[in-house]
């Protein structure tokens, strides 16, 4: 499956991005799984004034406490860490604390989404 996706992406970097938006009619889209610079470039080039990038991160200790274990060849692949550098994210959400802190961080982003949706 990964090889198939990589072949598609190599032939056409916007292949999966177009699939995501082709029938979307909502005023606000949350694309939750962009993993490569080419994905971000595709959205930025087509929607330059409407994109907000959000990075959700947790320190390694928190990730381990949640059951994550590093797997070479997977966790260090572009699909997992391709956006770890070279991107100035509009929002960074630190997902190490409890629900209250997470909700506080998401408040500004939620307000922006409501504003853009006209709510």
From TrEMBL:
One of its GO terms (cellular component) is cytosol. The keyword Cell division does not apply. GO terms for biological process: cholesterol biosynthetic process; isopentenyl diphosphate biosynthetic process, mevalonate pathway. Gene3D superfamilies: P-loop containing nucleotide triphosphate hydrolases (3.40.50.300). Keywords: ATP-binding, Cholesterol biosynthesis, Cholesterol metabolism, Cytoplasm, Kinase, Lipid biosynthesis, Lipid metabolism, Nucleotide-binding, Steroid biosynthesis, Steroid metabolism, Sterol biosynthesis, Sterol metabolism, Transferase. One of its GO terms (molecular function) is phosphomevalonate kinase activity. It comes from the Eukaryota. It is an enzyme of class 2 (transferase). Its EC number is 2.7.4.2. Pathway: Isoprenoid biosynthesis; isopentenyl diphosphate biosynthesis via mevalonate pathway; isopentenyl diphosphate from (R)-mevalonate: step 2/3. It is found in: Cytoplasm, Cytosol. PANTHER family: PHOSPHOMEVALONATE KINASE (PTHR13101). This is Phosphomevalonate kinase. The gene is Pmvk.
């Amino acid at each position: 499956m990964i090889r198939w996706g990589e072949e598609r992406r190599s032939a056409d970097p916007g292949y999966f991005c177009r699939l995501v938006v082709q029938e979307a009619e909502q005023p606000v889209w949350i694309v939750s799984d962009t993993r490569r610079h080419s994905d971000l470039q595709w959205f930025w080039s087509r929607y330059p004034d409407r994109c907000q990038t959000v990075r959700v991160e947790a320190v390694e200790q928190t990730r381990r406490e949640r059951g994550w274990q590093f797997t070479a060849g997977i966790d260090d692949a572009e699909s997992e860490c391709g956006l770890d550098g070279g991107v100035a994210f509009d929002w960074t959400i630190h997902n190490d604390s409890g629900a209250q802190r997470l909700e506080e961080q998401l408040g500004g982003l939620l307000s922006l989404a409501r504003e853009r949706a006209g709510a």
